[in-house]
Amino acid sequence: MVFLLKKIQPAKKPPCFTGSFPASLLSELFEETARWVGKTKELHTPCGVCKSLESFSCQRPLVCSWGELWAVGGIPGERDHAALLEPPGQSPPRGPAGNRRLHCLRSWAGEAAGVWSCVTSPACCLLPGARSPSMATQMFEGRGHAAVYQKYRFAPGKELQQTILSYLREKKAIPAQLAVDVGCGSGQGTHFLGEHFKKVVGTDISEAQIQEARATPCMPNISYLVCPAEELPFPEGSVDVLTSFTAAHWFHLERFAREARRVLRPGGCVAISTYTLDMSLRHGQCSQQLTRVFRECWDEILKYSNDKIKYVLDDYKEIFEALPFPDKKRITDIHDPIPMTVEGVVGYMESTSSYQTFKKKDPTAATSLLQETEKRMLETMGVSSRETPLEFLVRHVCVLGCKES
């Protein structure tokens, strides 16, 4: 597969734009391949994901930098490397991790510094429904799903945060330079890390999730990359702390464990957590009845769960065992009350992969289930507003480990 960048002129001159470019540009780009390909520059070694594809047909992001749009397109039939067309007399930055692959393209114009766009990670190479068997399971790809996820997923609770920070202090892993949040989704856990580390990078295999994360206001020390959890674009021994919040069960465990060992510095730490499925609700005197209404809906949604949920059901025991560090522990009784509203609880259920699978199979029944559940919750609470506050009680499991010095 060959990725090419072609400069085109926009109708306007916005400082920054990210979106999809018209399909009509693809044919023009393809027609000019012969003329442009001589100017390409190989930027990474062959990638197994690219090689596994039999064809390529999709749209790619645009990056607009002070009036210059760079359309990223694919060339069918060429799958053994990725390349980048560079403007005359200018050279793009090399990708991290020793030129393994280009994960980010920085705008050519110096005055537009800070505009980044992921263009050639293996995650971007994947066609809808296609993935390497050694990569993470992809369940959060659609833009609509990513938007719901960003709106309704909650940040790590205070007890979980303190559990992680206490462990890192015990191991003298903080203060530190670099924390990497793997499977960051739209950045809920990444924001927490931004308060405690000089530099934080959130990574996710879903381009849609990363777009949502980048669109959300955050601290200036936080950035995001699209890449698989099993192929992190960081040099060996360069990461101080590696985290994953409610995501590790989607990874290819063996490959992720090896990659964690590779990128962590000696004495570096991992903190891998998830909330479990045994949630409950609390509101005044009707908590028990309210939880029953929630559980009836939740149990119906969980019928559509992916097999990977087994790792959550066993409290991350298998993930704990896969962690390649002798110094490690698993905590299974971290309880956090998450402030929410009725809308937030219903939105959380909508954001789950299980509900999205249900919705694809039977959209009418899935939509009706949430609507009826919201109605029953309001009736149970004796209120009419979706904004009525309540507490969402969750139990966290956290796997902690420290690489030997």
- Report strand %: 15-25%
- Give the termini separation: 40 Å
Number of helices: 16
CATH-defined topology of the largest domain:
Rossmann fold
Structural class: alpha/beta
Fourth CATH level, the homologous superfamily of the largest domain: Vaccinia Virus protein VP39
Given as residue ranges, the uncertain stretches (5+ residues, pLDDT < 50) are 1-136
Give the mean pLDDT.
74
Classified by CATH, the class of the largest domain is Alpha Beta
What is the percent of helical residues? 25-40%
Shape: globular
Total separate domains: 2
Question: Based on the structure given, which CATH architecture of the largest domain is correct?
Answer: 3-Layer(aba) Sandwich
Largest sheet: 8 strands, mixed
Oligomeric state: single chain
C-alpha Rg, in Å?
A: 22 Å
User: How many strands appear in the DSSP assignment?
Assistant: 15
